[in-house]
């Protein structure tokens, strides 16, 4: 599984799957491929939509942030992980070791959905 350590909020310092902000005029698939390349140096192919997730942060019951996450499964095309853009680390993590990375529960659910496609 391709993981990054986030360098910026939300969840700075935590491990996650790569992703980021969509640029004006860019499709969600183009965004996924660009963000993965920028954050990890890895090129992907064969994108398959998994789910759309709301990331909502709250402080004392007040919403302080809201992100819409469009999650895909992709195939590796080329490149080896190296941190870039706003990632402080990028790795291939064995699926059997994912528990040690303290992934957000929604990230764990998305990974399980991606693995179920095999």
Tell me what the structure shows.
This protein is an alpha+beta fold. The protein has a single domain, classed as Nucleoside Triphosphate Pyrophosphohydrolase (Alpha-Beta Complex). It has 2 helices and 5 strands, in the order ββαβββα. It has helices spanning 28-40, 105-115; strands at residues 2-6, 15-16, 43-59, 62-78, 87-92. It has a 3-stranded antiparallel beta sheet, with no helix packed on it. Strand 1 (2-6) and strand 2 (15-16) form a beta hairpin. The two termini are 13 Å apart. The mean pLDDT is 95.
- How many structural domains are formed by the residues? 1
Largest sheet report: 3 strands, antiparallel
- For the record, what is the CATH homologous superfamily label? Nucleoside Triphosphate Pyrophosphohydrolase
Report the sheet-strand fraction: 35-45%
Rounded to the nearest angstrom, the distance between the terminal CA atoms is 13 Å
- The helix content is 10-25%
Structural class: alpha+beta
Spatial order of strands in the largest sheet: 2-1-5
Q: Cα-atom Rg, whole angstroms? A: 14 Å
Q: Helix and strand succession?
A: EEHEEEH
In CATH, the topology is named Nucleoside Triphosphate Pyrophosphohydrolase
**What are the segments in which pLDDT stays under 50 over at least 5 consecutive residues?**
none
